[in-house]
Amino acid sequence: MTALVAQHLRKTYRSRRRGGPPVVALDDVSLSVGPGEVAGVLGRNGAGKSTTVELLAGARVPDEGRVRVLGLDPRADRGRVRGVLGVQLQGASLHGALTVRELVRLYRSFYPRGLDPDRLVERVGLGPSRDVRFEKLSGGQQQRVSVALALVGAPRAVILDELTTGLDPEARRSMWSLVEDLRADGVTVLLVSHLMEEVERLCDHLTILDAGRVVAGGTAAELVDRAGLRPTVTLRTDDPAAADLLARLPVVEHVDAVGPRLTVTGTFTGTGHDDLLQQVGAALAAAGVVATETRLRLPTLDDAFLALTGSPLEDS
């Protein structure tokens, strides 16, 4: 059974301008997440990310389309869904006068089974603040409380919307470790994020939304491939035969020469390895060609996002 399913979702909102046309938040959006997978949703502000997760969580009703959480309808089976789905949304409104420990214990009481509240408070890095009232916490600390509340019922699936917003680097890595632990325990995670490093580290596959539509989906390497991006090696050499030599390599797509500077574009895709650089270096060494200023550039998920949507994620 697929853990989280969204099929052909469409959602519109009334225009803020009197008499204006409806605002289309989602237009035929589909995605699925298997059991124990960590899936990411990427997109700039206004792309439709929050609306998508709100529909999956049952907080809103789609105008068209179908949503299932572990085979359950989040609206018709609301009670059962609450028992298996944890949700951490941005800007959660919680009782400001309750302390961290009181809030987590209160939410634990809503479930027939769940995690130990005190251990969970420690796990999300709030042990020293356990007796601090929610309204006195920093934004990052409040974010961690929301994460704890999403997990205290030991859900089989969890939605995390901008998990590490407002967190310092140490706290961010602690949250990443928590997500990795959830995956190891077989929990399904849907992660909405603006951080490329975060989704590249955690997500098994990604869905890119832009203007309410799915632009592309797949692993980070598959998105780079979909965008037509390739690794490149740049170098300098005075040997006039170097360009033709490198162009004959099976891993080379083409070579551009501008004076002594060569730009070698690879035929393979993906990130995290230097096969192109190794083979270029080996071919030059075997031919006795001296090269300087040799640099490898691998295409990144940032590059793919820019190529697929027309502007970088940082614009948001």
Write a structural description.
- By secondary structure, this protein is α/β, with parallel strands linked by helices.
- It is built from eleven helices and 13 strands.
- It has helices spanning 49-57, 78-84, 100-108, 117-123, 139-151, 169-184, 196-202, 220-226, 242-247, 275-286, 301-309, and strands at residues 4-13, 23-33, 38-42, 64-69, 85-88, 157-161, 188-192, 205-210, 213-218, 232-236, 252-258, 261-266, 292-297.
- The chain has a six-stranded mixed sheet, with helices on both faces.
- A hairpin with a 2-residue loop joins strand 11 (252-258) and strand 12.
- The mean pLDDT is 91.
Q: What is the count of β-strands? A: 13
Strand content: 25-35%
Mean pLDDT: 91
Radius of gyration: 24 Å
Summarize the model shown.
The chain is α/β, with parallel strands linked by helices. It has eleven helices and 13 strands. Helix 3 (100-108) crosses helix 4 and helix 8 (220-226) crosses helix 11 (301-309).
Draw up the topology in text.
Layout: E1 4-13, E2 23-33, E3 38-42, H1 49-57, E4 64-69, H2 78-84, E5 85-88, H3 100-108, H4 117-123, H5 139-151, E6 157-161, H6 169-184, E7 188-192, H7 196-202, E8 205-210, E9 213-218, H8 220-226, E10 232-236, H9 242-247, E11 252-258, E12 261-266, H10 275-286, E13 292-297, H11 301-309
Parallel strand pairs: 3-7, 3-8, 5-6, 6-7
Antiparallel strand pairs: 1-2, 1-4, 8-9, 10-12, 10-13, 11-12
